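Deliverable D4.2, example record:
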Amino acid sequence: MNMWKKTMTATVACLMTFSLAACGSSDEGKTAGVSGDIKVYTRDSSSGTREAFEKGVDFEGSLTKNAIEVSSNDDMAAKVGADKNGIGYTSLSTDFEKNGVSALQYEGVTASSESVLDGSYKLQRPFMYVTRAAGDYGSDDKEQLVQAFLDFMQNSTEGMAIVKKNGGEVDESKAKPWDELSKKYEAVLGKDNSAITITTCGSTSVEKTVKASLEAFSPMAGNFKFTMNQSGSGDAVPRVLGKEKDGPNKGDIGFASRAFKEDGSEDISKAMESGQYCIDAVVAVVNKENTDVTSLTQAQLKSIFTGETLKWEDIK
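Output generated by the structure prediction step:
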């Protein structure tokens, strides 16, 4: 009898051990969530993306002192993609998958073309442009090419389609065929413009939409060349109209991922042209391994970026 009890006890113990091992193995292959310290990433103070994010989330001037500053939209995506505890913010046009980051919902709404245009996604901002003053391009042909390019990008069926394909949100119902719009530029478009270089500056967030537009337009306009010197929205006005307009970083078209300031620090009254060519969303991003966090509210983001919430497990 004692031998029978010992045998049964051993058998039950073995079964329990096997059962526990089986339960443990069923979790293999699952991606664990992220815990521990939150690493906050931010853009520099000249960034239009930073300004739009801080205003939208309502913490201007209260960013945590522990935030890690990055140099551009692409740098933000790369840095957060390399840090499993990281959180930052980028343009909606960012290649999230390529950079290893996940875009978060804001107040339960996913950023998309539809949610940006209908206003249901609230963290959005304009993509703006401003040019040099009329007569300040070095040649009439270059000035006319700048005018033609901006008309193509923001008003033509073809140009709007390119902007939209590359992440900008536009109202295509107002577009006109380029064949119709281009007639007033026929004289300059028909020339060999390969000796002319158009230089852009300002926001890094606009780079994808602007580069694709320039690449498409150049063959239609005498194969002019272009140089993109994007460093931040704060450099747009100074480099086309301000103190840097004739220096080594001068530009012909400046771009900002926010509205131009009306406090006198960004006077665009002398520009040949200025305006908005599309809308973009600012999206909070986390490392792709952070699978537990898919949506954050305004209050939660504010708490994280001001340093009130310090650990992922403390998000409420």
